[in-house]
Amino acid sequence: MDQTQYSNQKRPRSRVSSSPSPRQQASSRPRQSIVTAGSSSKRSKHHRARFSDGSGNSFLGDNYENTGNLTDRFEQIHQARLPPLRQNLTNLPGNSPYLQGNFGNMAGLSETDQQIADLQAQLAASQQAHVARGATAGKKKRERSDEMEKLIAKTVKDVTWRTVKYVTSDNQEQQLAIMVLDNLGLDEYLGNDAETQARRQVWLSVYASYCTQELNKTRSYVISRLKEAAFEYMDAHDGKLPSPAQIISCGKRVVTVPAMRTLFEWYVDKYLVRAAGNTTHWNENKRLFEIISECHFPGEPTKYYITASTEAFACIVFDGYSLVWKNQWQLKKDNKKAKIPVPRRKKGVVLTAQQKSLRSKYTDMDNGQTRFGGWSTEAIRKFTQLKDLIKEARALEPNLDIERDCMQSLKVAHGLEEEETLEEYLSKKKKSKKTSSAPVVEEIDCFGDED
Asked: How far apart are the C-alpha atoms of 148 and 195, rounded to whole Å?
């Protein structure tokens, strides 16, 4: 029977052949080293890499993508946080030169063999450190209190968000945590004695990273709120939005022409309300009776409800997201039930023009949640520059006059008299609540009395 005939028939359960198959021949050959300096061969990420000394003896490493030189591969393993490789080569099977003695006795090895041995030693040390870090993180999570986490979340949103928008280093994370702890005002953490300071250090070690997480959450929440304001504007203006340059001009108080004055009123009345992070720092009781640059906490004239950093953040978000919001608004208009997922890049997949149009200008959407929030260095530097410019603009008297004119216009827009005071406004609101009680329902004889 020839090969063609055989291939068209059902394959029998077993084949007995006097000569080995090509696969058997391949498996019987001595294995060649597949890890060499500068190697560019590729293997699946989910494949256990096999290292060989070229003599047929081999040992297994854990999952990683076998591409690039040895240093690159080590970085891939470390960054992927994969399980540690075996730490002692004496535990590995075979009689390769690596197994004859310890790491310090490598005389006579080839350059490639030495590189492999060095890589193994580095991997063992790195993975030991990773396991230790993971154990510490898990311990911190177990030590955290649900009640304390709630207090931290509220403090970050209502207090520290006013002045802190980003954390970009371990040092800044510690500063944020200290701010949060001081603002919590808990008696057991107040004081300079050694015992109190020790308690503070324990608290900081457990909750510092959680404070950063809550800051990242608050930032995401504020962005979603600013998006709501932008969608409302587009609903009222047939899908159009101001340019980022115009919003930045509002922040810098460059609003001399009537059209910009109107936009500045929207910026103050609708947009900055969402940037505040909560519903009390820039509500009607404040923005209709005080101006941005002078509205402060009672008895604290330098502690403003809307800070220059809050305005700068609102501006940088508009700069980075305005095109995204316009495209999302149009997609929702075309199909109200349309789901708009975040278009993340995947290896080997090219994003379409529409997907690219839904990606933010300044944030990294490809790596999921990151420790410090995924904002680009360019964005944070631009934010810092804007904050300084806005702070300077808020100190100029002509710009304070612009804010006062805006406040009067907003009063009229909200149905108030230009000279109406806050006390009169609150009194009217109180009376309105009393008179708008629920209507009296007529009693009807319908109560059951069958028994």
From this structure: 20
